[in-house]
Amino acid sequence: MKVVIITGMSGSGKSKALNFFEDNGYYCLDNLPVKLLADIIRMLQKLEGFSQKVCVTMDVRDANIAKDAPAELAELRSIAKTKLVFLECEDGVLLKRYKETRRLHPLMMTNPELDLAGAIAEERLLLTEVRQSADCIVDTSLTTSSELREKLKEEVLRNAEASVMQINFVAFGYKYGLSADFDLVFDVRCLPNPFYVDELKTKNGADKEVQDFVMSHDVSKRLMQKIVDYLECALPMYEKEGKAQLVVGLGCTGGQHRSLTFALLLAEHFAKMGFSTHAYSRDSRKNVSEIGQR
Q1: pLDDT of amino acid 291
Q2: Which of 59, 78, 234, 265 is at a distance of 20 to 30 A from 220, taking alpha carbons?
Q3: Is residue 92 pLDDT above 60, yes or no?
Q4: How many C-beta atoms surround the C-beta of residue 216 within 10 A?
């Protein structure tokens, strides 16, 4: 089992780091008591079919972190492949972040006499030994969220383990409305419609006869190439911004013929480029029902 422990200064971006590992297939646990760390990993190792990649955050919300962490981390390293990531951040940046969010520092909740600067100083002292044990220290003082993801990908996952972006190509019918989760929408109602060909009416874009009909027209080929060109340009930029999933809507009148043809062919094209793709028709059952009523 691979275990990544995320710790560091409060306000340094541990939640964003946890989200990154979750997007890369890790089972994530936030604010696990340090004393339970090794025991919980042992229990997870015994679960059949459970994820072999686990990410856990630990910080000064656990008042015993300074006392318990050294022995617990040593035990954990003896039973699982473990990497400890410490997120560092300058005091001035942490002060600014807390003032912007108007949240209390965890140590101020347990000691009301501390001001923010004092809480940051005390936390830094408490985490001194934990920081010294870290396999990787990432300074987030001047990083954006996407830059943090890139640092974690390079310095922790070493690129090879980082998951590729998932692209869902969804065929839909405009007469049933758009879905709120579409990131991009392409309208293919301008193309010749197989619905008006008797032998194709009850088929769909997964059938070779329908695909051959749709793609036999020059306008279809040109539109397909334009969509491919746009996506090949945009997808690397979405990946750089840290987007884990992109939902691309392909719409025709009923979501059965032209749109599904395009969805399937686009999924095939970008799968060959190394992306994780999935294509399906959102409204296929609605169309089958309507056809049956005619």
Answers
A1: 37
A2: 234
A3: yes
A4: 10
Question: CA dist 215 to 27, 37, 195, 283, Å?
Answer: 43, 57, 15, 21
Q: Which domains does the chain have, with CATH numbers?
A: 2-157 (3.40.50.300), 166-293 (no CATH)
Interacting residues of 271 by C-beta distance below 8 A, sequence separation 6+: 277
Q: How far apart are CA 293 and CA 270, in angstroms?
A: 37
Dist CA 54 CA 146 (whole Å)? 22
Q: DSSP characters for 133-180?
A: T-SEEEE-TT--HHHHHHHHIIIIITTTSSPPPEEEEEEEEGGG---T
Tokens of 143: 């990083």
Instruction: Specify whether the CB–CB gap between 34 and 68 falls below 8 A.
Output: yes
Cα distances (Å, whole numbers) of residue 96 to 136, 143, 292? 25, 14, 63
Residue 129 parent element (H or E): helix 128-132
CA dist 275 and 267 (Å) reads: 9
SS3 267: helix
- Quick one: 101 exposed, middle or buried, by C-beta within 10 A (0-12, 13-18, 19+)? exposed
Q: Report DSSP state, residue 114.
A: -
Q: Is the pLDDT of residue 292 over 50?
A: no
Angle formed at CA 43 by CA 40 and CA 44, multiple of 5 degrees: 90
Please, are residues 147 and 121 in contact by the beta-carbon 8 Å criterion? no
Tally of residues, the chain? 294
pTM > 0.90: no
Whether residue 236 contacts residue 263, with contact meaning beta carbons closer than 8 Å, is answered with: no
H or E element in which residue 291 lies: helix 284-293
